[in-house]
Amino acid sequence: MSGHSKWATTKHKKAVIDAKRGKLFAKMIKNIEVAARTGGADVSGNPTLFDAIQKAKKSSVPNKNIDSAVKRGAGLEAGGADYETIMYEGYGPNGVAVLIECLTDNRNRAASDVRVAMTRNGGSMADPGSVSYLFNRKGVVIVPKGELSEDDVLGAVLDAGPRRSTTSVTRSRCSARPPTWSRSARRCRTPPSTTTRPRPTSSRPCRSSSTRRARARSSS
After folding, report:
1. Alpha-carbon distance 14 to 73, whole Å?
2. Which class for 70: exposed (0-12), middle (13-18), buried (19 or more C-beta within 10 A)?
3. SS3 state at 150
4. What's the pLDDT tens digit per position in 50-61?
5. Distance (Å) of CA 102 to CA 62, 88, 162, 210
């Protein structure tokens, strides 16, 4: 026995896990509220809200909390903080342009946290408009290949003015000599070559066992 309580160790571990989970849940709920306030509570017409709800469900956020967050964001239920999006500009190490997007309910606290993070990591804050012209907001739309052909997809998106359209095809590469798995070495290796190297010949003459026995008898 170590002399320590096993429940005390379990309690401390559970406290750390619960703190991380609560922080993650609060972040997910905040994103849901902002998405509902920006685009409405209709999930079918608000893709940002749909994406936020899916991420929350993957993180095991209770459905009751999700519904309450949607209602608070849409104004159907009282409560909820007034979150706003703030953009900060700065320069990272070696003069790298950095554009920071924050979602907060307190401008002063967000500005202080961003300034401290930039200063501690070798960066500096910049004036508004210093680096924002270098960035453009873009998105990626992935359409699974099914009954639609590439021409159908291109015809549907040309009106939206996409910058680039690509088609990814999964190809299988075949090797004449497939690698084998070595259990002892725990790594993949290729089979040895069919051409064998000649063994080095020794300059010492080869003596048979009978010759050695005959010489041993004569010496005795």
Report:
1. 31
2. buried
3. helix
4. 998 999 999 888
5. 25, 8, 27, 91
Is the separation of the CB atoms in 190 and 177 below 8 Å? Answer: yes
Tokens of 126: 């910049």
- Return the DSSP state at 94: G
- CA distance linking residue 220 with residue 212, whole number of Å: 13
Cα dihedral sign, 71-75-78-79: positive
DSSP H helices, the chain, are: 6-39, 47-58, 63-74, 107-120, 150-157, 209-219
Residue with token string 């497939």: 178
Q: Please determine, for residue 197, whether its predicted confidence score (pLDDT) is greater than 80.
A: no
- Token output for 166: 């690509």
Contact 29, 69 (CB under 8 A): yes
Instruction: Convert the pLDDT of each residue in 92-150 to its tens digit.
Output: 998 899 999 888 888 899 999 999 999 999 999 999 889 988 998 877 777 777 777 77
Tokens at 84, concatenated: 């706003």
What does the pLDDT look like over 146-179, one tens digit per residue?
777 777 777 777 776 666 656 654 443 444 444 4
Q: Please check the confidence at residue 181 and state whether its pLDDT lies above 50.
A: no
From CA 49, how far away is CA 32, in angstroms rounded? 6
